[in-house]
Amino acid sequence: MIEVTAHDSIQDFEPARWNGLFPRELEDHAYLRAIEDSRLPGFRFVYFAVRDGERLLAAVPAFLTDYRLDTTVQGGLRRVTEAVARRLPRLMRIPMLALGSPVTERCRAGFDPAASPDQRAAWLDAILMRMETFAAERRLGMLAVKDAPAADDALWRRVCPRRGLRALPGLPGATLDLPWHDVDGYLASLGAATRKDLRRKWREASGLKIEWRTDLDGIVDDVHRLYRATLANADLSFEELTPAYFENVLAYMPGRAYCVTYSENGALLAFNLVLRDRDRLLDKFLGMDYAARERYNLYHVSWMENVRHCIEHRIPLYESGQGLHREKTRLGSRLHANSLWYRHRNRFLDGVFARVERLARLDRLEPEQPEHQAHRA
Predict the structure, then answer these.
(1) Which residues make beta-bridge pairs with 45?
(2) What's the first-to-final CA gap in the chain, in angstroms?
(3) CB 223 within 8 A of CB 216
């Protein structure tokens, strides 16, 4: 008999059984456990599963948070919403249940590999129904799917409208194919101005010490200081990470997670948390010393180091995540659309959101400079 269950911890699932639903996924059971154990402020996690007896058929991670309505609002309207938030903080925050994760690249629904398209649609629909009752029991107002990838768009569009969810464009992800034998091959694929710009920035950074580390021994405080400095300068951020997040990812994913550090005379200027396997390198978070921007172009230096690493280790794909899509296109990347599905459980409020949703469209946002986002991903 088919049953949909909700779980408070990823550890309710055997890693092999969970990962079997998500083939070739870097952000796997170990990564989700690292997030869960990091105790991110303002978030709780839940995991929906479809079972037939002891057999695990489908699963989706999810999270609960008080969502601030002006998270994606900018400009003059942002100043207005901040004033309202100071006077009426509860008005600007809505308890939300969302499929996906605040710290993954996209929302992937995992299915038994033998499942047919109709079975996948039926199981996902059952998860959305369970999501509705879960939210009603806890008086959560907003339901959402965060970053549903375009690759699965047919499935989401088949199921979400049945449950009253509407789609908004999200920030696209970016990937760079790397078929070249050396960095010169990559640079030759770019426009002349971009090639010259990257060569100069890479050359000017030749004095930096670059290390690929598997732990944060001796630098954990510096890493979090740089992360917080970057977060403070970000135009858009959703979650706030803890020092435990970086330590957990490295500890729980040996051989697949690295912290790339950039130092000058023993001082840490930047770090980049990345995940990798033989098929791709996934760029998660970049933190930097903002005083060093006058001496080095740390965003582009770290980009070039990741390209170099991929080519040297014959990793064919570099995934740099969301944000800065114009700059990433200039650097040779392809963009991949994501969607945000949502609705409010109160019909009146849902109608209001439907009328003003264009003000918060993520696809309109683009930081002016690479340094103006908290992380690449």
Answers:
(1) 63
(2) 40
(3) yes
Whether 18 contacts 10, CB under 8 Å: yes
Domains of the chain: 2-172+337-372 (3.40.630.30), 174-334 (3.40.630.30)
* Single-letter residue type at 210: I
Chain centroid to CA 102: how far? 6
Instruction: Tell me which amino acid residue 172 is.
Output: P
- Burial code of 160-189, b = ≥16 C-beta within 10 A, e = fewer? beebbbebbebbbbbbbebeeeebeebbee
- Count other C-beta atoms under 10 Å from residue 142's C-beta: 22
Q: Which of 63, 10, 29, 42 is nearest to 253 (CA)?
A: 29
Check whether 72 has a pLDDT greater than 60.
no
Burial class (CB in 10 A: 0-12, 13-18, 19+), 137: exposed
Backbone angles phi, psi at 255, to 5 degrees: 80, -5
Q: Angle, to 10 degrees, between the axis of helix 243-252 and the axis of helix 29-36? A: 150
Report, in this order, helix, strand and coil percent for the chain, each rounded to 5: 40, 25, 30
pTM of structure: 0.89
- Tens of pLDDT, residue by residue over 109-151, are 999 999 999 999 999 999 999 999 999 999 999 999 999 999 9
pLDDT tens-digit readout, 277-301? 999 999 999 999 988 877 899 999 9
Cα distances from 296 to residues 123, 204, 301, in angstroms, run 50, 7, 8
Helix (H, G, I), strand (E, B) or coil at 80: helix
Looking at residue 87, what is its pLDDT?
A: 55
- The C-alpha torsion from 252 through 254 and 256 to 259, rounded to 10°, is 90
Q: CA 210 to CA 197: how far, in whole Å?
A: 20
Inform me whether the pLDDT recorded for 78 exceeds 50. Answer: no
Please determine, for residue 75, whether its predicted confidence score (pLDDT) is greater than 80.
no
Q: Give the dihedral sign, CA 49/55/58/59.
A: positive
Token look-up 């459980």 returns 345
Amino acid at 63: F
